[in-house]
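Hello forum,

I keep getting stuck at the same step: I have a sequence, I want structure tokens, and every attempt I make locally crashes halfway through. Rather than fight my setup again tonight, could one of you with a working pipeline run this one for me? It's a single chain of 158 residues.
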Amino acid sequence: MDLTDKLYLDDEDSPLLKTIKGATTGLAAGVIWGTVLATWHDVPRVERHVALPGLIRTLKICRSHGLTFAAVGGLYIGVEQLVQHQRKKMDFVNGAVGAFVAGAAVYGFKGRSIQSAVTAGSILGFTSAVLDIGGRTTKVDTGKVYDPVTTIKRPNVR
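Reply #2:
Ran it on my machine without issues. Output:
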């Protein structure tokens, strides 16, 4: 069994499904964050030709943040999975590259400058690397299973 088999046997989801889950989670988080931000802003004045201006403004803010977070989540997971597949390694570099590409693409597009793209990509890449280095992804697998549920029956002792 080579490393490629191990990478995908440990995971129940395919890289495409992980990317879709990342984008969906980003969408949900962005909509929630947009809702929070919309409640912090002043409600616009009532206009004659606009029905429910507060609701429309809230929905626009939710849409904007939801799509941004979905793009970041989908790009991050998609590029991370692509790099992992190409390098045949599971380490912090995959996440750092995915975060850099996601930050540079999304926030560079929104900021419309190379400087904002490089800055956002660098910040997200550095943050992802620090979290992965301190987290679970770089630890050695010892083969032990720490599951609190056992399938072995205890003998009846009377």
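DSSP finds five helices and no strands in the chain. If your local run keeps crashing, start a new thread with the error log.
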